[in-house]
Design goal:
The complex is a heterodimer of chains A (535) and B (362).
Chain A: E1 8-17, E2 20-30, E3 35-39, H1 46-53, E4 61-66, E5 69-70, H2 76-81, E6 84-87, H3 99-104, E7 110-111, E8 114-115, H4 117-129, H5 147-159, E9 165-169, H6 177-192, E10 196-200, H7 204-210, E11 213-218, E12 221-227, H8 233-241, H9 246-249, E13 269-276, E14 280-287, E15 292-296, H10 303-311, E16 318-323, E17 326-328, H11 333-338, E18 341-344, H12 348-352, H13 359-371, H14 379-393, H15 409-421, E19 427-431, H16 439-454, E20 458-462, H17 466-472, E21 475-480, E22 483-489, H18 496-519, H19 530-534
Parallel strand pairs in A: 3-10, 3-11, 6-9, 9-10, 15-20, 15-21, 18-19, 19-20
Antiparallel strand pairs in A: 1-2, 1-4, 4-5, 7-8, 11-12, 13-14, 13-16, 16-17, 21-22
Helix pairs in contact in A: 13-14, 13-15, 14-15
Chain B: H1 4-15, H2 19-35, E1 43-44, E2 51-52, H3 54-77, H4 85-103, H5 109-135, H6 141-160, H7 170-177, E3 179-180, E4 183-184, H8 185-203, H9 206-215, H10 217-222, H11 227-251, H12 265-275, H13 287-307, H14 314-329, H15 331-341, H16 346-361
Antiparallel strand pairs in B: 1-2, 3-4
Classes of the chains: A alpha/beta (535), B mainly alpha (362).
């Protein structure tokens, strides 16, 4: 089979930032009608390469050929002109505009009297329908959609431009399994129409499920291009991290400890019946000292909501929280930090990093806030904190004076982890700490969690990746539909499948109970569903 | 080998956002010298040892603008704006003058201090009203402070009963018109206050937290900062500084003009802050930049008077100077400029421009 002419060919690409060579002589090509995965660790240069291709960064050396012609891309408009469309890692849309306006922004249908809104919304509806999103009212504001749905809108926005090259940078990081499958269907359709798709994901399963070909980058250098079916997982990971995988797989095993007696030991934190309307039904939770408690459940099941109530990011309307037996009132994040609780958000960009501040300032911020503004940390104290966590967590580049927004996602996450660790928490809540980051950084963060528990810190670990939850947690709290539906003490017999069973069977039991109730025309009040008993 | 050092210092200086403010001041002074070569001359008045000259006048005129400019810099850094400072100047001036007039003792230091204290207290309370509306009620800063911008001037008129109250108080007058070691007291006070504010903000963690709130309020709250308290503090500070500015403004003539004192000075303060390189979007701020910006505004005002620009053309003249300055500061305009002068190194300059931008922000 002869290979068709590449739609995009990048040769010898180098990009230098002050003090760093972000890309060094990288080759990359995209063939029409293929899904091409770009692989590499955080900071390997994936995002930089994508930004070179989309005209965000100018290249210092090398050439970009689109359709065989050399192109100078000075900005995203040039790239779109060349038929290259992008969906970025984090949703980049205008939440206060309507869904339709977001999809069609800059491509509104024009009539004799300016924008023809009716036609524009119709076009938007069609674009959304191609993604299987027929039910959306395009006139509603985007902010009424969940993050996952907004992501899909972002993708249909990119497609509305009739792109020949579609770049999907971590599109699946906030989608659940069904939505991912829906997206993949659309990607396959587009591929069959001859669109070249550049796909970035940290989920290896997804890479193997969808991609035809992959290019591996490491430390800003080109590592190689392979057919996905000819490269197995171990080989791929070794190429990405440049060392053997065994070092990573040695971590883990179930962290169950047979010796903990939950009947007699006093929990570090114990919540009873905490609830907030629209976010969480009354829920009980105990966390013991040095224990890793995993929250499992689908997106929107109430994992984040529970964590936010514990941290005071949202106020609990009911229930009480005790810390070492003492009742505490967590009114705000500030009071939670004072009680030695810390919470690392799932929404790194909006609620985590302070983009224009440096790594150092971001890292010391929580400690400084805890001390109050009148008692500043001395240069030496700041230096100590920053050096300690930069080296302990392996932040790259190890430059405390760099603005955090210029770091890759995984390294931003490490800086934030450092911020919380510096407050010396007794309970650290990590909400999706490994989302959107690569295998290497993921392993480092998992290792840090295990080490924390060793040191006696309690950790609540929230992740959409059940394997990760099962591997790290001593106990798993399962949530569904804003309720806690069960708890599993980890052990050899606990697997991701078993957790899925708990989630799935709960729904079935519920539905069965409901249909029974309907069939018997029993009064609703006499229908004791499992979750209500929890409260 | 000793030569690169001054070059590096100069390069560093050019990167400062307020560098062009300094250049503009120099240009304006040069312009004045064209009309009168002796413009910069400073002489000593043999009768009392005071320095006399146009520069001294500029320093005196700058004092009120400097006060509201640094207050504005802090408010803008939190992502807000304080439109009420001009009106608060009138309120503060009105309170001070009414107090002095009713006390009637023109030589008493206690009375003068009482007038100042009461004026600042009222300013602080009004600043707190702004702060509460912004931080706790959650109004947009523009709207919240617009309330007092409009109501403040009315309040000043109520305080004086609609009159332009005049009063006599020697100690009070000294604060504004007096001289110490030949320099105007009012400028020394203003500089002292700027230095104190700068030290408090930068030596404590206040500056860091203000910037954090201005850049990302949600993330700041999650990091344990309590934005409402901090915002309230900043708006109170801005109110007090406006109160001081009001005292400076009325002290020179010992009369409060309720419709003119501080009129539209909030715009001058915002300009001074922008000239100093603080983005209206909030975040990184520069007290030194606001100082330079305030000095430039004062120089500009004096220049307009000195050159005899007709009063109807004054706003246009001011606007031209400011537009030119803002263009000089614009990254985009500068990169066009450097591209045109040095086409072969286009890529290199684009990159260093980015670096410079980062440097400027940092």
């Amino acid at each position: 089979m002869t290979e068709p002419l590449p739609l995009v060919e990048m040769t010898g690409i180098s990009i230098e930032f002050p003090g760093v060579k972000a890309l060094d002589d990288v080759d990359f090509r995209l063939l029409p009608g293929e899904i091409h995965a770009l692989m590499g660790e955080n900071g390997a240069g994936k995002s930089t390469l994508i930004k070179a291709l989309t005209g965000v960064y100018r290249i210092d050396a090398g050439a970009i050929l689109v359709n065989g012609e050399e192109r100078q891309l000075h900005g995203t408009a040039d790239a779109q002109q060349a038929g290259i469309s992008t969906v970025y890692q984090e949703v980049n849309l205008a939440p206060n505009l309507s869904i339709g306006e977001n999809v069609m922004l800059g491509h509104e249908v024009r009539g004799p009297f300016g924008v023809n809104w009716r036609a524009t919304h119709r076009a938007a509806t069609e674009a959304l329908a191609r993604l299987g999103l027929e039910g959306l009212d395009t006139r509603k504001p985007l902010s009424t959609l969940s993050i996952a749905m907004q992501q899909l809108v972002a993708i249909s926005r990119a497609m509305a431009i009739k792109a020949k090259v579609l770049i999907l940078d971590e599109p699946t990081s906030s989608l659940d399994a069904n939505e991912v499958e829906g997206l993949f269907r659309v990607m396959r359709t587009l591929r069959d129409q001859g669109v070249a798709i550049l796909f970035v994901s940290h989920f290896l399963d997804q890479i193997y499920a969808i991609s035809d070909r992959l290019t591996v980058l490491r430390n800003g250098r080109y590592e190689g291009e392979y057919l996905t079916r000819e490269l197995d997982r171990h080989a791929l990971i070794s190429k990405m991290i440049g060392k053997d995988l065994d070092a990573l797989t040695s971590l883990g095993g179930n962290r169950a400890r047979g010796d903990r007696d939950r009947e007699t030991q006093q929990p570090l934190l114990s919540a009873r019946g905490i609830a907030r309307r629209g976010a969480l039904e009354p829920t009980d939770l105990d966390v013991f000292p040095g224990e890793v408690v995993g929250f499992a459940g689908l997106l929107g099941a109430g994992r984040t909501e529970l964590a936010r109530l514990l941290y005071g990011a949202d106020r609990a309307e009911r229930g009480e929280v005790r810390l070492k037996g003492e009742r505490i009132d967590v009114k705000s994040p500030a009071s939670a930090l004072a009680a030695h609780l810390a919470y690392s958000t799932e929404n790194r960009r909006d609620e985590g990093i302070i983009g224009e501040l440096t790594v150092r300032e971001n890292m010391i911020l929580a400690v400084q806030a805890k001390r109050g503004w009148a008692r500043p940390l001395s240069k030496k104290e700041q230096e100590e904190i920053v050096q300690r966590y930069i080296s302990a967590l392996g932040v790259r580049p190890a430059d405390p004076e760099r603005q955090i927004k210029n770091l890759s996602g995984g390294n931003q996450q490490k800086v934030l982890l450092g911020r919380w660790l510096a407050t010396e928490p007794e309970l650290l809540i990590l909400d999706e700490p490994t989302r959107g980051i690569d295998v290497g950084a993921k392993a480092e963060i998992q290792e840090a969690v295990a080490q924390l528990a060793e040191d006696g810190v309690s950790v609540v670990f929230i992740s959409s990746e059940l394997e990760e939850v099962v591997r790290l947690s001593e106990r798993i709290v399962v949530l569904k539909d804003h309720q806690k539906i069960g708890e599993l003490v980890n052990g050899p017999d606990v697997t991701a499948e078993r957790v899925v069973d708990v989630i799935a069977s709960h729904g079935v039991a519920d539905a069965a109970a409901a249909s029974e109730a309907a069939a018997g025309a029993a009064p609703a009040a006499s229908d004791p569903t499992t979750p209500k008993e929890q409260s | 080998m000793s030569r690169p050092a001054p070059v590096a210092v100069l390069a560093e200086l050019i990167r400062k956002p307020w560098f062009w403010g300094l250049v503009a001041i120099a240009v304006l002074l040069a312009l004045n010298m064209v009309k009168d070569p002796n413009y910069l001359a400073i002489s000593v008045n043999p009768a009392n040892g005071h320095l006399v000259g146009n520069l001294v006048d500029i320093l005196r005129a700058a004092a009120p603008i400097l006060m509201i400019s640094i207050g504005m810099a802090l408010v803008i850094a939190t992502g807000g704006i304080d439109l009420s400072v001009g009106s608060l100047m009138a309120v503060s001036g009105a309170v001070a003058m009414e107090f002095l007039e009713s006390a009637g003792d023109s030589s008493s230091l206690v009375v003068a201090l009482g007038a100042i204290g009461l004026a600042l207290l009222v300013s602080a309370v009004l600043g707190a009203v702004n702060g509460i509306l912004v931080a706790y009620v959650g109004l947009q800063p523009f709207i919240a402070t617009l309330v007092l911008m409009l109501a403040g001037r009315g309040l000043a008129k109520v305080i004086t009963g609609g009159q332009n109250t005049a009063a006599a108080s020697d100690p009070f007058k000294w604060v504004v018109n007096g001289f110490v070691v030949g320099l105007p007291v009012v400028f020394l006070f203003a500089t002292l206050i700027v230095v104190i504010v700068a030290l408090v903000v930068r030596r404590s963690a206040l500056g860091l937290m203000i910037e954090a709130i201005g850049i990302n309020p949600k993330a700041s709250r999650m990091a344990g900062i309590r934005p409402p308290g901090l915002l309230l503090t900043v708006y109170i500070l801005s109110g007090v500084l406006a109160g001081i500015a009001g005292i400076f403004a009325v002290g020179s003539v010992m009369t409060v003009d309720v419709s003119k004192t501080g009129y539209q000075l909030e715009m001058d303060a915002i300009l001074a802050v922008v000239i100093g390189g603080t983005s209206l979007a909030g975040g990184k701020f520069s007290i030194g930049g606001a100082f330079v910006g305030g000095m430039l505004i004062a120089t500009l005002d004096k220049t307009v008077l000195f050159l005899g620009v007709s009063s109807s053309a004054t706003p246009a003249f001011k606007a031209i100077v400011i537009v030119v300055l803002c263009l000089l500061q614009s990254q985009r305009v500068r990169s066009w400029f450097s591209r045109r002068t040095a086409p072969p190194t286009r890529l290199a300059t684009a990159v260093t421009d980015d670096a410079r931008k980062e440097g400027a922000l940092a």
